[in-house]
Amino acid sequence: MKVALIAILLGASAATAEPPVLSAVDAVDPFIGTGGEGHTFPGAVAPFGMVQLSPDTNTSCAIRDCYKWAAGYRYEDSAITGFSMTHFSGAGHSDLGDFLVMPAVGADDAVKLEPGEPGTGYRSRFSHDGEIATPGYYAVSLIDSGVRAELTAGTRVGVQRFSFPAGAPAHLILDLRSSIYNYPGKILWSTVRVMPDGTITGMRETRGWAPARKLWFAMRFSAPLTGHSFLNKEDKIPYRGFQGPGRGDDHVDQLAGRALVARLDFGPLQEPLEARVAISGVDEAGALANLVSEPGDFDTIRSATRKAWQQALGAAEIQATPAMRKTLYTALYHSLMAPSVMGDADGRYRGPDDQVHLAKGFTFHSTFSLWDTFRAEHPLLTLIQPERRNADFVNSLIASQQVSPFGILPVWQFQGRETWTMIGYHAVPVIADAYMKGIGGFDAKAALDAMVASADYAPYGGLNEYIAHGYVPIDREPEAASKTVEYAYDDWTIAQMARKMGRKDIADRFDKRAMNWRNSFDAKTGFLRARKSDGSFRVPFDPTAINYGSDYTEGNAWQYSWFAPQDQGGLIRMLGGDAATVKKLDAMFDFDNSKLDYSHAEDIAGLIGQYIHGNEPSHHVAYLYNYAGQPWRTQERLVQIVASQYKPTPDGLSGNDDLGQMSAWLMFTAMGCYPVAPGSGEYVIGRPFANRIALHLPNGRNFTIIADGLSGAARYVGRVTLNGRPLARGFIRHSEIVAGGELRFTMATQPNKIWATSKSARPFSATGY
Predict the structure, then answer these.
(1) Structure pTM?
(2) Which of 26, 57, 370, 729 has the smallest CB count inside 10 Å?
């Protein structure tokens, strides 16, 4: 099966006729990842858009089961609850699903205001046969109401277009109770009101993954309201609004409570109804201003967003088989959704202090899944997004730190609110990598100050113990082994940036801390292990054990023992040299898992032995053969990973996409390289998976990766040239890519066991080889 899939992806099978080459936008399939464990959504979103307008197929799941619906939609479902304005793409946690709208038909008093099931509530059956998804556009036919629903989105505005059956009274249900991961008590407060011109506004505050999250909306329609009804289902007190014209100009109908639902009436319509909705994390005025910041009807917004996606996806010109091309353009699409805009059109935003601030010279972004995205997602964006956008990310991180109640950089932030999810202070490598690559547009001193403040904040995650002992003790702090090595890597990136800025005092201090990874490594067993405060390793020890809150974060010793991206040469020495390292890497990939049960661990997916591609700690591991002098083994493992972990189908992602990290891994790997150590300025060479990828760089230059002779059989790199000259080393520098030029691979059926094997040809390691 894997051999066949490799052949399909790489084009080894014969074809009778060449299919037409689709544009980059049309090559994207937003349904990839909507099944299985991908946690992506198929709805409408602009690049890095504040609005992610998408269907929800289940918003009433039991708490323990809601993880499956983290994006609101699962491809295998057969009914839609409605269409809400906010979603995560591939997150490992559930939330959002704000301001759900659902069309309905019939007499006013017959409209159902509970989701229920098809036939008993406003939920409706649907079929994939009538479903369309492309960047910036989604459409589906709702079987029970006979309504055709279409969605599009700009940056801060979403537009819904509903075509109702002829002659049927048309309604919209606005359910402010509905939310993804909607447990009792999540909705702290909500409001809804009708303004004199028929505009609907409102807000709600939720206590979900992020506490005290506030969001406002403003909604206008292409047809006038003929009536409306508001209901507070908690208080059981109905509220009847105006029933037709005749109200005074100063009349405003409104309702507040914790369980609001509204019925909006339009009567029989001759044309499709359009509902324009804008959101704001600041206030009602911000939502109203955002609503007019992107003028135009449904088709205008759809056209503008399609052009935005053409430009964004046009950063990479991909030539590959249809299956691989679809997979790669979809991966690129998924990598361009976050961090999302969270500042209003006037520059205001709500910070982690829950206060409103004004961004000066940048657009505030949020949705930072940093434990995941520092690895490949952000490095990819430094190559394919303008310097201004990358500077916006960094400025948003700095601005958040400056008003944080704790004075530290975001950990896992969305809509300006901190969740404290995952470990490390991984905003640090994002900033350092950008600075080391020459990206400007932000205050480097303020950035370095924020990085140091985060690394020195003793109350966070056992940092006081880490600073005192050189490791995090397991008897004082959970997940201690993982925290030790992740802190050490983050420290190394601080040293890199500080040294470039001429701050030798900071560089020397954090260079020393960067070597702390060794303090939790047990050379006798060859594994990273948790140590106690007395210096002893915790026993008993099982390198295959995965238990949340124990020694490791979402993994075990097999995955985390390889995390020393700043000093892989030092790790190789710890393991006993090149041969021992290769043997251990092979043991990881070839491990027999038949007697292990990881069903208790949500994110343990995509297993190849003890390699877990569905979660991030393993993402760099296949490239480590390069560091041990056997790059052909990296090439073999990459074929194995791509064939088993990615495919152009709804279940085509082995694990949740984590805001683009899984997709960015594939995009880099298809280009033939990967950023094992962001901050080093190097990309470790693997092998390409596309015939040709031309990067149209933000500086106006082009960098082209070509794979001559690529096929299912020719899986090895026989020769590499850079700008026509042989490249003997196993890495390429960022500076070489942004200078423009050509990286050419000559593929072979047999491994080249000479190329890039010498120690001088190996990638960066802080302590050498």
Answers:
(1) 0.95
(2) 26
